[in-house]
Amino acid sequence: MNSDRIILGIDPGTTIMGFGVIKVINRKMEFVQLNELNLTKYTDHYLKLKKIFERTVELIDTHNPDEIAIEAPFFGKNVQSMLKLGRAQGVAMAAGLSREIPITEYLPKKIKMAVTGNGNASKEQVAKMLQQILGLKTLPKNLDSTDGLAAAVCHFYNSNSKLGNTKSYSGWDAFVKQNEHRVKK
Fold first, then answer.
1. Is 11 considered catalytic here?
2. Nearest to residue 87, comparing CAs of 126, 52, 112, 54?
3. What is the domain-level CATH number for residue 24?
4. Which among 36, 105, 144, 147 is annotated as catalytic?
5. Is 158 domain-assigned?
6. CB 6 within 8 A of CB 41
7. Where are the alpha helices (DSSP H) in 135-183?
8. Domain span holding position 146
9. pTM summary value
10. Is 147 a catalytic residue?
11. How many distinct structural domains can be found in the chain?
């Protein structure tokens, strides 16, 4: 694996999608960008999905990432919320797959563990640790963007070893092959 690369991290959501970009040069991380896509002004769920797809493609076209790390949906009690979150994640993944960019999913606890050493760390603890690791001068008001950045950092730490609780796809063919039970023929 080439040690010089760009990683786009995404924290999908239908209210706010957070994202962060890091550049890896000589096996060291450099901060590039973090931000969020605020979707609160849109009431139509399908329009939100369209905006997530468009923004993800825009990020890909701007930064040309070699890899995408995305936070996997966590299992909650509200089935409707999980369905919407899964759709948001799927649309962001489809944007990456449409550009043939390898995607790796990470569970939220795995991301927190990689960044802070504590799988139960708070958003604030993750943000503070990212600030130290990457030398960020200030932190954003909303921490969804630092969650996206955390996914990228987690991927950097885990990219040399395939540990459990991750799924990787290098394109549509790989996704379909690994998920034949989910694809209707």
1. yes
2. 52
3. 3.30.420.10
4. 144
5. yes
6. no
7. 144-158, 172-178
8. 5-177
9. 0.84
10. no
11. 1
